[in-house]
Amino acid sequence: MSLLQKLIERARKTPGKKIVFPEGNDPRVVLAAERIAEEGIAVPILLGTEAEIDRVSAEDGIDDKKFHAFDHLKSEMLDRFASEFCLFRKRKNMTHEKGLEIVRNRLFFGAMMVRHGFADGMVAGSLASTAETLRAAITVIGLKEGVKTLSGSFFMDLKTPTAFGGKVLLFADCGVNPNPDSEQLAEIAVLSAGHFRFICGEKPRIAFLSFSTHGSAGDDSISKIRNAIPMTMEKLRASGIEADVDGELQADSALVSEVAKRKCKNEVIEGNANVLIFPDLNSGNISYKLVERLAGASAYGPILQGLAKPVNDLSRGCSVDDIVGVSAITVCQCG
Q1: pLDDT over 70 percentage in the chain
Q2: Residue 174: which of 277, 281, 273 has the closest Cα?
Q3: pLDDT tens-place string over residues 70-82
Q4: What distances in angstroms separate CA 206 from CA 20, 134, 307, one per listed residue?
Q5: Which residue among 36, 120, 207, 224 has its CA within the 20 to 30 Å range from the CA of 7?
Q6: Taking the domain 151-295, which CATH number applies?
Q7: Do residues 190 and 196 touch, judged by C-beta distance below 8 A?
Q8: Domain extents for the chain?
Q9: ∠ CA 138-142-146 to the nearest 5 degrees?
Q10: pTM exceeds cut of 0.90
């Protein structure tokens, strides 16, 4: 069974969760929302004007809409949301007029719906950039208590299993932090481990990736990776998450046991990693796209790790299946 099917079945066990999709003007989102409603995954709420929703639905050949369409620009909640926005942004000299202008933005309006409980979670980013989605999520939703570093992970459903038979890997950070330091890498690893266990139900085996394996190369850029490992172990113990951690490792040492045996005698995960932590955003983002586009993997994300409430991003190159998968993960996060 594919990861997508597993996610859908799990989401169905918590029926009635409302997920807001700010980009109701995207044909892919409309198709995904119709499928989400039909399959009982969630109650989709699409933001858009009546003309937008009708036009896109006609393009998709949808006559009998099963999703909920909501014109946020005509909503009575605009004034309430603007007033609320001014309250928590008062240090920014926010006026009601400025607040009203901001919450008219569909991303901010959707985030405000989640903040106030009118929706359980939000999925956005099929048209908006990650930066735009993050800005709305961080401003309106904020981080969980104790979290300092927001990050973005991808669940990679592999077409060809790893040497150990693993079908699903988690890649992080692939969407948020350009050049995380040791402390940030450690927090990314711990949040990723928690997400992997929550979604996949398996023990996380974390590999900190590099061009070096256990000191085979020397460079200042590797120091932050090595320093992150003991920090990660300490944070995992404090969080009560049981996981294996190793690094720095080249990708083949992390994923192929025969290579791991040759390159490092004391590798903890023995070539059977399932959570891959990349040293920077360049390597993480490039890697997930290569695995998706050239190896045929399905990539679900970026799943935003560390927010106070479920808000998840999409790649602008996402498919309908991708949107459905991220939505199912969002439902699972809603509890």
Answers
A1: 99
A2: 281
A3: 999 999 999 999 9
A4: 33, 26, 22
A5: 207
A6: 3.40.50.10750
A7: no
A8: 3-142+307-334, 151-295
A9: 130
A10: yes
Condensed to tens digits (0 to 9), the pLDDT of residues 166-176 reads 999 999 999 99
Query: What is the DSSP-derived secondary structure letter of residue 138?
Result: I
- Residue carrying structure tokens 């009203």: 100
Token pair of 209 as six digits: 């990736």
- Residue 241 tokens read as 């998450």
The two tokens of residue 210 are 């590099």
Picking from 332, 324, 270, 247, the residue whose alpha carbon sits closest to that of residue 35 is: 324
Other CB atoms within 10 Å distance of the CB of residue 217: 12
Exposed/middle/buried for residue 216 (C-beta within 10 Å: 0-12, 13-18, 19+)? middle
Examine domains 3-142+307-334 and 151-295 and report if their fold is the same: yes
DSSP symbol at 307: B
Query: What pLDDT digit, counting tens, does each position of 269-305 carry?
Result: 999 999 999 999 999 999 999 999 999 999 999 999 9
Query: Would you state the CATH architecture of domain 3-142+307-334?
Result: 3-Layer(aba) Sandwich (3.40)
Task: State the Cα–Cα distance between residues 298 and 318, nearest whole angstrom.
Answer: 10
Confidence of residue 91 (pLDDT cuts 50, 70, 90): low
Tell me whether residue 109 is exposed, middle or buried, using C-beta atoms within 10 angstroms of its C-beta: 0 to 12, 13 to 18, 19 or more. Answer: buried
Decide: residue 11, CB within 10 A, 0-12 exposed, 13-18 middle, 19+ buried: buried
Give the Cα separation of 187 and 159 in Å (integer): 29
| Closest to 24 (Cα-Cα) out of 82, 109, 99, 98 | 109
